[in-house]
Amino acid sequence: MTQYVVLSAILFTIGCVGVLTRRNAIVVFMCVELMLNACNLAFVAFARQHGNLDGQITAFFVMVVAAAEVVIGLAIIMTIFRTRRSASVDDASLLKY
Amino acid sequence: MNLLSHSVLLPLAEGGASHAPVVAPDTAAGGVFDLLWLVIGLPLLGAFLLLGVAPFLRGSLKASVDKHGHLLGTATAVLSFVLSLVLFLSLLGRDAEERQVGQHLWTWFETGSLRVGMDLLYDPLAALFLLLITGVGSLIHVYAIGYMEHDPRRRRFFGYLNLFVAAMLTLILSANFVGLFLGWEGVGLASYLLIGFWQHKPSAAAAAKKAFVINRVGDIGLSLAIALMFATFGTTDFGGVSELAGEADQATLNALGLLLLLGACGKSAQVPLQAWLLDAMEGPTPVSALIHAATMVTAGVYLVVRSNFIYELTPVAQTAVVVVATVTLLWGAVLGCAKDDIKKALAGSTMSQIGYMMLAAGLGPVGYPFAIFHLLTHGFFKANMFLGAGSVMHGMNDDVDMRHYGALNKAMPVTFITFAMGYLAIIGFPGFSGFWSKDKIIESALADNLLVGLLALLGAGITAFYMTRLMLMTFFTSKRWEADVHPHESPKVMTVPLIVLAALSVLGGVLLLGDWIVTWLEPVTGHAEHHEPPLPAIVITLIITAVVALGVAAAWFLVGKREVPREAPQDVSFATRAARADLYGDAINDAVVVRPGVGLVGGLTAFDRGGVDGTVMGGAAALGGISTLLRRVQNGFVRSYALSLLGGALLVVLALLAVNLG
Amino acid sequence: MTFWILAPIMVVAALGILFVRKAVHAALLLAVVMISLAFLYAVLDAPFLFAVQIIVYTGAILMLFLFVMMLIGVDATDSVVETIRGQRAMAVVLGLLFGTTLVLGVSQVTLGTVVGLDEANAGGNVPAIANILFSRYVFAFEATSALLITAALGAMVLAHRERLTPKATQADLAAQRIRDFAEHGKHPGPLPSPGVYARHNAVDTPALLPDGTAAESSVSRVLAARGTVRSAPAMADDIDDVRRQIAGFEAQDPTTDPAAMPETSGKAGAPAHTTEDVRKDVDQ
């Protein structure tokens, strides 16, 4: 069972690094999704470990929330792109000193 | 008005623990005493009408008020005098035990345990003062009608005069220290307004400001004394304080006495707060006569005499009074010797004479009656001489320099004769009022302390010298007039008051007949056991007369026999130069108070700028600098923030591990 | 066994997301990870999540990603240069530290025996999940529905573009067309349709004007930019060629070999004649 959790941790870390290094907002978003999926894997794995379905339910909820999040996030990306003609997260850096 | 008629007269309460009699204001009145408030009310009404109502009038009414307002002002003063006279005669008709009348007008304010009533107290002391203030005040009002005839702001001048009279009467008639303080500040205000009456002259404006500021120093003393009284006794009524004074501890009493003395010094121009009086001569001459000679400046003497129940218990403060008085009487006399400005010479003389009064007041019950006696006679002859000086100035185109006078005895006979009466009175020519009053003071001083007595004696000699000098330079010696000056006698409206005051100067001594004034004031000042003077009284009198004669002779030889230069000679001795510079009073004030004050303020400002502001602003600047550096962290890049998040998450994980594995 | 096959694939695909430069490739790699995850769910006794993962994640969410990507430009590539100083190095260092710590920490934990979901899934996985979802988690479920509605509304609000000018009516359009003709000489009518020529797909063949020249505006500008438009001389060749053929047929000339006919530049080949060539020919 440990191997699932380790895989989950690795995927999560990869997602993290992706968020930090990629500049295309959509790819960053994908990396966030990757992190969410990594978490889901851990949840499902632990559900099996403990013999109840709460982990699966949580994973299900995470998926739903992720869907909502993607809808809004992509809409925002669209809006930003519409005004700035760019999907780079570094371009939206006006809120600074 | 029935509110005002609540007056009661009770038999004089028996004396408490102190030697001084207890002041008992809650005594029944009735009859004419119900009108006591009117004595203040009339001039107050005059002031209100002339100052408060008149400016809002328009058109012909205003012109008429401006034209005849002075008559209203004079009328209120005269009516007040008539009323005072009636009151005095009524009081005279009573037994000595019942000569204290109180009148409760209304409760002024009541807060916590402090209850201050608008109470009046009419007793023998107040009666004499009332007569002096309203009497001399009325005469000066009359005189001012002539003196201020051509002044466009005469209505206002009379309004101020009325205001002054009302305030002075409040000061005298109040039955508690708070009311006294009200009057005290009122006369200070009136004095300020009147000294600076000719406000277009910068010197007058500056003099008014100076008088006001120095008076505030004294007022601080008085107000602190009142606060201390309330803290100690819980009351500020003369009656209450005099009853409880014996129970207070010595330190409090000493403090009270010294604080009251400080107040008296400010108002009465005693050293060290003397510097304002000579400058105050910038005001119109009637003001100098009324406020800065006859009445207001003697308020300090009144305060000391009125507070006798405190001074009786504090020898320290009494000694301080004597020392201050002795220094002042010599100081003023020396100033009088050197001044060429006739009004300033008279002002120096005033300072000196008040020194005599304070000296008497400092001697205790022995001296109180003589202090008041001298105060009255001084009020007469000094007012007389000031008005005479005003008359001379009137004839000399408002020139005040005595070096431009000379041989005026022919040109102004009435002024000369009346001035001479005042002159004889002040130097103590036998038979004149000043002779009696000053003689008594020097005698008492000699009996109390030989050194003080001798200094007072010396002062009498100097007085004779400078007054003779003034007399000679003004009325005798050669003509030194300016080219376009044509001396003439003043109009009747000015000379009549002079004649009346001259008569009073001559006859003022009658008050001492059969020790009348001593007996009269005994309910207030207490009975005195007379010390035996070191010499028989008649010998002392002879010595005083001899010293006075010496002073006159010296003046005759130094001034009368020589040619008086029109310009003051510059190659004079150090003493003369010092005296001309007011004995460096201003310089001393400057050095002791003003410059250290300026330095202190400068230092505080610098400290505020450098220290306080530096700390605050420096702290802010440091914070700002750090913030400027720290804000670099806020670079606006989401990914940088996410990096920080990851760092934080790493720390959390590490902490979890540390807790779990540790 | 499934795990050991899938895990390396997933890790490699995930790492690929970090390195590929095109967003579309990243999306495809993400799809690999997600589908692999779905299989792992199945292995972990979660058939319902297996289905949902495929349908919702891979089917809906990823498609949404691709859709947006198409909208904002498929061929946009990330530049490799890092603009924030130290960001990449710090990200890698911190990520490695984080990952190492996490993996080490997780592998230190002993999880005990696996209970397994046989008991919980006794009546079937989907009914069991439904039982819990609509009893214990019903409030969360309802809240989620509210969230989804909100998200839908939010997306609409965000994507909505306010009309700034009134919609042009047909009359406006007609007036505009005539105005364009008056001011710029723009042809007011419909553009000429491409020419029809039997040997070629007609779209890239300009129509011929009465004088035999090509009408440039009858061909799509895109095709013109790609240079696949057939030029007039080429067409003239064709015409000649056809004429010859016709003549040949008429003359029954066997020497004419159809295979020797000159191969014109087709749209699949490199453009032999572009509009520039046409101009060059004219200049010559």
From TrEMBL, chain A:
Pfam families: Oxidored_q2. It comes from the Bacteria. Its EC number is 7.1.1.-. It catalyses: a quinone + NADH + 5 H(+)(in) = a quinol + NAD(+) + 4 H(+)(out). It is an enzyme of class 7 (translocase). One of its GO terms (cellular component) is NADH dehydrogenase complex. Keywords: Cell membrane, Membrane, NAD, Oxidoreductase, Quinone, Translocase, Transmembrane, Transmembrane helix, Transport. Its main location: membrane. It is found in: Cell membrane; Membrane. It is a multi-pass membrane protein. The chain crosses the membrane at residues 6-21, 26-47, 59-81. GO terms for biological process: ATP synthesis coupled electron transport. GO terms for molecular function: NADH dehydrogenase (quinone) (non-electrogenic) activity; quinone binding. InterPro entries: NADH_UbQ_OxRdtase_chain4L/K, NUOK/Mnh_C1-like. NDH-1 is composed of 14 different subunits. Subunits NuoA, H, J, K, L, M, N constitute the membrane sector of the complex. Belongs to the complex I subunit 4L family. NDH-1 shuttles electrons from NADH, via FMN and iron-sulfur (Fe-S) centers, to quinones in the respiratory chain. The immediate electron acceptor for the enzyme in this species is believed to be a menaquinone. Couples the redox reaction to proton translocation (for every two electrons transferred, four hydrogen ions are translocated across the cytoplasmic membrane), and thus conserves the redox energy in a proton gradient. This is NADH-quinone oxidoreductase subunit K. It comes from Nocardioides oleivorans. The lineage of its organism: Bacteria, Bacillati, Actinomycetota, Actinomycetes, Propionibacteriales. The gene is nuoK.
Automatic annotation (TrEMBL), chain B:
One of its GO terms (cellular component) is membrane. Keywords: Membrane, Transmembrane, Transmembrane helix. It is a multi-pass membrane protein. One of its GO terms (molecular function) is NADH dehydrogenase activity. The chain crosses the membrane at residues 35-57, 69-92, 125-145, 157-175, 211-233, 287-305, 317-334, 354-376, 411-430, 450-472, 493-517, 537-559, 641-661. Residues 108-158 form the NADH-Ubiquinone oxidoreductase (complex I) chain 5 N-terminal domain. GO terms for biological process: ATP synthesis coupled electron transport; electron transport coupled proton transport. It is found in: Endomembrane system; Membrane. This is NADH-quinone oxidoreductase subunit L. It comes from the Bacteria. PANTHER family: NADH-UBIQUINONE OXIDOREDUCTASE CHAIN 5. Residues 174-463 form the NADH:quinone oxidoreductase/Mrp antiporter transmembrane domain.
Automatic annotation (TrEMBL), chain C:
It comes from the Bacteria. Coiled coil: none annotated. Its EC number is 7.1.1.-. It is a multi-pass membrane protein. InterPro entries: NADH_UbQ/plastoQ_OxRdtase_su6, Nuo/plastoQ_OxRdtase_6_NuoJ. Residues 241-284 are annotated as: Disordered. GO terms for cellular component: plasma membrane. Keywords: Cell membrane, Membrane, NAD, Quinone, Transmembrane, Transmembrane helix. Residues 274-284 have a biased composition (Basic and acidic residues). NDH-1 shuttles electrons from NADH, via FMN and iron-sulfur (Fe-S) centers, to quinones in the respiratory chain. Couples the redox reaction to proton translocation (for every two electrons transferred, four hydrogen ions are translocated across the cytoplasmic membrane), and thus conserves the redox energy in a proton gradient. Belongs to the complex I subunit 6 family. This is NADH-quinone oxidoreductase subunit J. It comes from Nocardioides cavernae.
